[in-house]
Each structure stands twice: as C-alpha cells, then as structure tokens.
Amino acid sequence: MTTPPNPPRTFHVKSFGCQMNVYDGERMAELLGAQGMTAATDGADADLVVLNTCHIREKAVDKVYSDIGRLRREYGSRPMIAVAGCVAQAEGAEIGRRAKSVDIVVGPQAYHRLPSLIADAVQGRPAIDTDMPAEMKFGALPGRAQRQRPSAFLTVQEGCDKFCTYCVVPYTRGAEVSRPWAELMDEARALVDAGVREITLLGQNVNAWDGEDEAGRPQGLDGLIRALDRLPGLTRIRYTTSHPNDMRDGLIRAHAEVESLMPFLHLPVQAGSDRVLKSMNRSHTRESYLRLIERVRAARPDIALSGDFIVGFPGESDAEFEETLSIVRESAYAQAFSFKYSPRPGTPAADMDGQVSPEVMDERLQRLQAAINADQLAFNQATLGRRTQVLLERKGKYPGQLVGKSPWLQSVIVENSAAAIGDMVDVEIVSAGPNSLGAVILEKAAA
To answer: b or e along 238-253 (b: 16 or more beta carbons within 10 Å of the residue's beta carbon)?
Structure first.
C-alpha cells in the first residue's frame, strides 16, 4: 500500500455508471469538502482520487484495475487511491490483494465513513468498509453545497428486493430502503435555496418509495411529489428508475395533475417475451406492461416513454427476440437503453443453460438499436415547430451555445443567446436530430 506522509488536502471524485452513482459522487465531494479538503480538476492535482465504481456491466472490475494502473503510471505514488461504489462492495478486500496501491475500499452504503478511512490509511492501518448498516448513511452526511447547478439529483430510495436473475444490485446495494419524509424535504429545500430549479428523484426502484408525512399519514412517491410541488422555486420534478410492479394508481394520476412533474417516464421492460421475462424473474408480463403504458398515456397523452432492454439473455430464441422488437414497435419509445446480456458473478442467470453467443447478441443488439433510434428520431422530429420551455443547464460545444432540457428530457441547443445558465426560457423548436434539438428563444411580448 502506498500512502502520502500527510493527510490529503485535495481530492478528485470520478464516478462511473448510473445517476445514483453521480449523486453519491457529489455527496462524497461535499463530505470531503466539509473536512477542509479542496476539489481538484483531475488526478494530477489531487492528493486523493476516489474511483466511484459501477458493477452492472461486464468487465467493470477489469476497468477499475485498469484505471488504478493508469493513475499509478501517470502520477506515481501520489495520489492516494480509494475505490468506492458497487465494485468495492462486490470485491471487498480482494481489491487490496490484487492492487497493492489501493489505499481505501468503501462500499456504497458506507461512504459517510470516508474521513475515518482516510485517517486509517494515512496511519498505515487497513482501510476497508463494506458494511451495510441498518441506519442509512444520509444522516451522517453534511448539508448540501451552498451553490448548485440548475438541475440536481436527490436519492429517495436505495436497494432492491426484486432479485432479477441477471442483476447484482440486491447484493451490492442491499434491500429496498426508503429515506424518511422530513429528511427528503429538508434536502430538497436546501437544494432549491442553493439555486436548483429541477430535482430528479432517484432510486433503484424509485417508485417503491413509501413513508409517512409530517402528520404521520402514509404516503407513496406520488405524495412526496405533490409535497415537493409546493416548494417555492422548484419548477420541475422528475424521477427514475421505475419498476412496472410499483407503478401505482396515485403516481399515474400525479402525471395528469401535478404541473411540475415532467412528462417523461423511464419504465424498463427488459424483454418482450413472457418466457424470458419469467426467466429474468420480472414480475410483469408483456401484456401487463403494455396495458400499463396505455394507462399512463391516457393520464398524460404527451408523455415521453423510455425503457431498458437486454438482448441475448440465456435461452433467448430468435422468435423471442422478435417479440422484443415488436414491443418496441408497439411502445414507440422516445428513447431507450439497450445492452447485451453480461453474466454477473453470483447471479442465477450466470449459471443458466443456453448462453447466447457473442455474435448472435451483436446482431440482435444492432437490430434493436436501429429500431429504437428510428423511434427516437421520429419523436424528436414530431416536436418541430413546438413552443415549449427549456431549462438552460450548461454551455454548448461551440461559442454562444447553451444547452438545456425540454420537458420531455430532450437536449435542446440554443444559439447566440443572451440568456444565462439557470434560466427557464420560452423557445420554438426549429431543428431535430437523433440526439438533440435546435431552438430559438422567443421574445417576451411587451406588457
């Protein structure tokens, strides 16, 4: 193990994978900042680099060790290296055995203990923590940073009880746990006070969130959304990722009734074949999923639908893959994510018979993505001429450009704008490509 002689004064957090990892990375940065450390732009200026890892895809572990090696080649014995996140949870002490230059290993439910782990590492003591304590980490974290981007994540739920046969989340993130109402409302207020105008609620199964409000009344995610809708200054609310089994009537009604709840829903189906869905241990069927989409669209006709797909799950036949293509055609996704099945060690699917060859998976993925991309382009082109609002979030690729999000989560580029990041502007969509829209800002009418 290589450690600097003094406690680190600067840090850099590099997050991989899902939006929850992005949120965790931000909270780790806030935690380290509260300890008096200063954020660095990259590993070259950092005394501590935190690799906040994801374990969902194949070769994730190899990528971690590759990054560790790169850091040592480029920067020598400095910086101190911490491996955090789901790979840390899954690999544990094995990381230190395989990569002697790693100083700290911390799982996603224990990163609030990072300061004490840093102290242990500086003193040459073992610095590993992959516990999943019964008491959630959030209460031990500092308040949110005083300055925030216009859009922010807020984790409301962690873990998963669904045990899909391909998925490691129940083993790396633990059982489903909902954060308390008061804690969430306090964090949301702090975000809004710091300049946030849009909050995306996060969870492995975010729509499984439940709790009690300040009056002790049971609430689901729809109740939390309605309470957030009443916060002055918060103009947009989103949530992800949802499970079809937890898409309840109240949440569907919220899409019709809550103006700040954006018309976008990420609702993974994973496959179009009932046999494959059952083998995946998904609790919905093809028919129940399609009927659920009908109900959501009846409540909010302009909603943009997103999904997840896995191709080449063990035993998937050509005919069953065609059922996946047909559910894409029936659902008309505004966007979707698709992946080749990758065996995750310790999951039931990894040991199933009928593993599909890489060549077949490649061919199926190309066909699936072609169908998804065609629908995405059609959805974007259907917005041409539409007038809507865009929340400007960042600078564009070229001078004078600003980029924001439409209500339907499309990236929208405006040119030569006098507006500023954080503004909510009225625009007209004037161009549409597969991945973004172009827009002009509309002039306000004189009073």
So the answer is: bbbbbbbebbeeebbe
**Statement to judge: residues 262 and 299 lie in one domain:** yes
| Domains contained in the chain, number | 3
- Judge whether 156 and 201 are in contact, CB under 8 Å: yes
At 134, the pLDDT band (50, 70, 90 cuts) reads: low
Q: Percentage of the chain with pLDDT > 70?
A: 97
DSSP lists the bridge partners of residue 390 as 425
Residue among 166, 158, 190 at smallest CA distance from 19: 158
Distance CA 48, CA 12 (A): 6
Kindly indicate the confidence band of residue 447, based on its pLDDT and cuts at 50, 70 and 90. Answer: very low
Residues 199 and 111 in one domain: no
Give yes or no: residues 328 and 209 share one domain: yes
Query: In angstroms, rounded to a whole number, what is the distance separating the alpha carbons of residues 87 and 73?
Result: 22
Domain boundary among 333, 357, 381: 381
CB 206 within 8 A of CB 157: yes
Question: How far from 320 is each of 3, 275, 278, 317, 333, CA to CA, in Å?
Answer: 53, 8, 12, 5, 20
5 within a domain of the structure (yes/no): no
Does 168 share its domain with 225? yes
Residue 302, pLDDT above cutoff 50: yes
β-strand 198-202 against 236-240: which pairing, if any?
A: parallel
Beta pairing, strands 236-240 & 218-220: unpaired
Of 106, 220, 112, the residue nearest 157 (C-alpha): 220
Omega into 399 within 30° of 0, i.e. cis?
no
pLDDT by residue (tens digit) across 10-21? 999 999 878 888
Cis ω before 10 (30° cut-off from 0)? no
Residues 6+ apart with CB under 8 A from 57: 339, 342
Domain boundaries, position 224: 137-381
